């Protein structure tokens, strides 16, 4: 504790000593003030972190905020600012038209009243019995059999419709195999989950892998792609229990790319080797988050450019605003950052209907000034918040990603964010909680192939069950073909697909 002095004690000191004592006290007070200021900063950081953690655990996952100009900023994973639209209020008669009164003719039969109701029939199982003619040769010793049609997994009881039903349940509806096993048993069908897993892995390796490779080739032709990855646990991959593996996802760019392609790629690690191999020979722009692996690809390959994700750039600011609440956050830098990013979204969303060449021109004219102003504003205010705070981390992320966040300004095909790719991986993230097959590397690779076909089918407005069934009927017929040209008629956008594979609105 610092010593205190009485008036009598101070009289004994010389003028020089008293000045020195004063300077020492002044220096001590300055240090204490600095310590107190740092303690306050640490307390504020702790309070902020606590509020954000509480909001993320117990709060709403999405939230809307309004400000001047009647803009709306949506705090959800889609993170898209909705453009204003003029809505014309309808007249009452348009909503509730007056009923037409039919004049009844005396003694004349009127048309029958017709109404429809929808019935549901639970899953039914039919046993197919196939007969193969067997003959005895002229020597009365040789056995001759008639030619047998090509089957799915020869010598197995599985049929295209049964396997398609299993795939639809697991990869579309996220029903784990053990529950499917129970459902079958309730219908007096005893098929173990192990048998279903074996069928699925074999179908993926033998048949679906051919279509997957063809889609991979097609993806390489698109000059704008998107990439993301998510962790997954595979219990038997030769490593310690709990080791993380990764499912990478790649898709065609969201803007102007038709038809869409979505491909999964299972890998044991998150290293750059994997996207480097998957994208070998690719030339174009890849939209991704701030993971350094993607930036490394750009440095290594002059044919590849990386575009950043504006959705990621705003998340830390959104965390602060959601944790504090709209009213309390209005005077914060995080709120101001969100407003500026929302303006960028709003202007760019208004250009969606333009052709790529027109869109890039308008981006340079209208969006670029907003982007430049945003980064200038960050550089001006970055020292006003602690670097360790959520807002400070948001500023640092944006500045580190500035080069990549500006890429979209130079190309009308590049989307503003990577949300389309994250949406494509969402079905996998939901399904992985129910996995009972991804116990091995083979199972993980099979799931990557099947998820790829399932998500691509959905993106192309196909009925997944019917598409799976058709593929399992057709691909086995061509296993002895010398080339894979038959795959052209099986692609999700092929006009040769039967009508039942397409959703009703695609058949009109």
From TrEMBL:
<dbReference type="Pfam" id="PF13817">
    <property type="entry name" value="DDE_Tnp_IS66_C"/>
</dbReference>
<dbReference type="InterPro" id="IPR052344">
    <property type="entry name" value="Transposase-related"/>
</dbReference>
<dbReference type="InterPro" id="IPR004291">
    <property type="entry name" value="Transposase_IS66_central"/>
</dbReference>
<feature type="domain" description="Transposase IS66 C-terminal">
    <location>
        <begin position="452"/>
        <end position="493"/>
    </location>
</feature>
<feature type="domain" description="Transposase IS66 central">
    <location>
        <begin position="156"/>
        <end position="445"/>
    </location>
</feature>
<protein>
    <submittedName>
        <fullName>IS66 family transposase</fullName>
    </submittedName>
</protein>
<feature type="coiled-coil region">
    <location>
        <begin position="22"/>
        <end position="56"/>
    </location>
</feature>
<dbReference type="InterPro" id="IPR039552">
    <property type="entry name" value="IS66_C"/>
</dbReference>
<feature type="domain" description="Transposase TnpC homeodomain">
    <location>
        <begin position="48"/>
        <end position="112"/>
    </location>
</feature>
<dbReference type="Pfam" id="PF13007">
    <property type="entry name" value="LZ_Tnp_IS66"/>
</dbReference>
<dbReference type="Pfam" id="PF03050">
    <property type="entry name" value="DDE_Tnp_IS66"/>
</dbReference>
<dbReference type="InterPro" id="IPR024463">
    <property type="entry name" value="Transposase_TnpC_homeodom"/>
</dbReference>
<keyword id="KW-0175">Coiled coil</keyword>
